Amino acid sequence: MRLQPVRRCRRCALGNSAVRHEKSTRYVRTSRLAEELNYARLDGSLTKLRTKLARLDLLILDDFASLPMGPQEKADLFEVIEDRDERVSTMLIS
Question: Per the database record, which ranges form the IstB-like ATP-binding domain (predicted)?
Fold first, then answer.
C-alpha cells in the first residue's frame, strides 16, 4: 500500500519541478481527458482543445490505459499524443 503514495509524490514532484522552471504543465487523469475530448468533439471545439494541449510543455496523463476505452476515445488520445510527439514532453502513468 505504501507504493501508490510514493509513486504519486514522484509524479507530483516532476510536475511541480516543471512549473518551477516556468514550463506550462497539466496533470489530468486519462479518463477525464477522454471526457473533455468527447465533449469538445460534440460542441465543435475539438481542434481548439487539441491545439491547447499540444502547446503545453508537459502533459501528465495519470491512470493511462487503466480503464477500458471505446475506439473514438482511443483515437482522440492517440491524436493528442501524436500532436505532441518529438516536440514536447508527455508522461504516461498507469
Answer: 12-94
Give backbone dihedrals phi and psi of 59, rounded to 5 degrees, phi first: -115, 120
Task: Please say if the pLDDT value at position 24 is more than 90.
Answer: yes
- How confident is the model over 70-86, as pLDDT tens digits? 999 999 999 999 999 99
Q: Any idea how long the chain is?
A: 94
- Could you say which of 3.40.47.40, 3.30.565.10, 3.40.50.300, 3.40.50.1220 is the CATH number of the domain covering 3-92? 3.40.50.300
Cα(11)–Cα(89) distance, integer angstroms: 14
* pTM of the predicted structure, to 2 decimals: 0.83
Q: Can you tell me the distance from the alpha carbon of 61 to that of 31, in angstroms, rounded to the nearest whole number?
A: 9
